[in-house]
Amino acid sequence: MRYLLLIYSNEEEDANMTAAEREADTAAYYAYTSEVQEKGLMLGGEALHPTNTATTVRVREGNTLTTDGPFAETKEQLGGYYVLECENLDQAIEYAAKIPGATHGSIEIRPVWIFE
Asked: How would DSSP label each residue in the chain?
């Protein structure tokens, strides 16, 4: 089954990392990405720019409305994602727990609905 693993963290805390912390974090993400690629689980994944670069779109009564920034105020922001092909939810949980951001943020797992 295909799972989307959404990586949430606090952008303000991330921005205040030291150079050494950022380097270690980046290395941990490269190691994780290599692992899921080597195991043939990774179908996709990307890091996202910060929420201050986001634009939210809503259509109300036929009018397109845009808002700068994210759609909701939260303590943690979506920073990236992986799409993995896992045998079951237990395997998805196993690999979500290995994502470096799980140690200081949270990982949301969502099954992907495949339309045939």
From this structure: -EEEEEEEE-HHHHHT--HHHHHHHHHHHHHHHHHHHHTT-EEEEEE---GGG-EEEEEETTEEEEEES-SS--SSEEEEEEEEE-SSHHHHHHHHHHSGGGGTSEEEEEEPPPP-
